[in-house]
Amino acid sequence: MDMHDLDFLYSCLAIAERGRGTTGINPLVGAVLVRDGKIIAEGWHEEYGGPHAEPMLLTKFTSKIWPTDRLFVNIEPCCHQGKTPPCTDILIKKGVKKVVFGMFDPNPLVRGKGVAALRKAGVEVIGPIASELCRRRNRGFVSIMEQGRPWITLKKAQTIMGKIANDDGSRLCMTSPVQNEWSHTYLRSRLDAILVGVQTIVTDNPQLNTRFVQEKNREVKNPLRIVLDTKLSIPLSATVVSDSTPEKTLIVTTVRSGKTFDELTERGVKVLVLPEVSIPKLCQALITPQGDFNGISSILVEGGPKTWDAFKEAGAVDEEMVLVGSEVSCN
Ligand code: AOF
Ligand code: ZN
């Protein structure tokens, strides 16, 4: 492997991000075809249930594949019949002779078997060349496969003295523009959903989007906004249900609330009704595609304290980030 190989893999990971928000519980996958040290074709997994990255690339690239061409992909090509046919068969049929991959597929139907199928057909396979990085970028998919639930990151903002709100409970702004840009870049835009309790909506009326990175990179998507609202008490004037992207909001409530939610669904807001809002039941529902909901694989839990505790008590926390700032005025 030479250093350029890693560059081609970074390209795969960057292209793969285009599928965020539509690939649901499937991995983010990008593939590039390299000839004489240059990328000559690319493909990515666009949508849950849709074609995988490799066939996307090979459908667009209609010229002949040379035996020296190398196909890079961030995850081991699949060899199973799922919603789509095995990628290994397509690669072999199209005459791809060299494959470089980033990580093994944690899906037990595929793990190691994809590589074996390619090698058996005489394809030279190199990898995994960047397992840790690729698993990190697909931490949601890896978590579903290995832990049976989405990847969960807890994020808190607090002052040096440990305060998280004003004494009367009202919003306190602590993080600097640099910290906001960091969390939008490395947390909000790298995870599928942001989750808050309804109390945070009432006190802060947040937007829960990636505006600090979108200004610089318009390709960055907005995550799904999930609000835990057992009693269905969210104000209809809240930004997350009244801005221009109501379909990016999912309200999780209980049958016990007994309230109707027509006004929300008419606006395009998604409502998930569970028998009770327990973390395991919520996680299970979120990784189960139904209708036009393809599921989500990773969550950024932004608070408040009740919500953080619920995830901690359920043992459903993979990492915790604390942004420490000073008390500044909110504007
Ligand atoms: C790849 N390239 O682009 C993707 C892969 O139901 P299906 O057919 O979509 O299969 C989903 C499984 O295929 C998923 O769990 C994972 O193991 C693999 N995803 N593999 O080589 C891709 N999306
Ligand atoms: Zn595949």
How would you describe this protein?
It is a single chain. The protein is an alpha/beta fold and 331 residues long. The chain folds into 2 domains: 5-142, Cytidine Deaminase, domain 2; 149-325, Dihydrofolate Reductase, subunit A, CATH 3.40.430.10. The chain has 13 helices and 12 strands. The chain has helices spanning 3-16, 53-60, 87-94, 113-120, 131-137, 139-147, 177-188, 198-204, 211-214, 239-242, 262-267, 279-286, 305-313; strands spanning 30-35, 38-44, 70-75, 98-103, 124-126, 151-159, 193-197, 224-228, 249-254, 270-274, 298-303, 319-325. A 7-stranded parallel beta sheet has the order 10-9-8-7-11-6-12, with helices on both faces. Strands 2-1-3-4-5 form a 5-stranded mixed beta sheet, sandwiched between helices. Helix 3 (87-94) runs parallel beside helix 4. The longest helix is centred in the first third of the chain and has 14 residues, at 3-16. The radius of gyration is 22 Å and the shape is elongated. The chain binds ligand AOF and zinc ion. Zinc ion is lined by residues 52, 77-78, 87.
What's the layout of helices and strands?
Elements: H1 3-16, E1 30-35, E2 38-44, H2 53-60, E3 70-75, H3 87-94, E4 98-103, H4 113-120, E5 124-126, H5 131-137, H6 139-147, E6 151-159, H7 177-188, E7 193-197, H8 198-204, H9 211-214, E8 224-228, H10 239-242, E9 249-254, H11 262-267, E10 270-274, H12 279-286, E11 298-303, H13 305-313, E12 319-325
Parallel strand pairs: 3-4, 4-5, 6-11, 6-12, 7-8, 7-11, 8-9, 9-10
Antiparallel strand pairs: 1-2, 1-3
This protein binds ligand AOF and zinc ion.
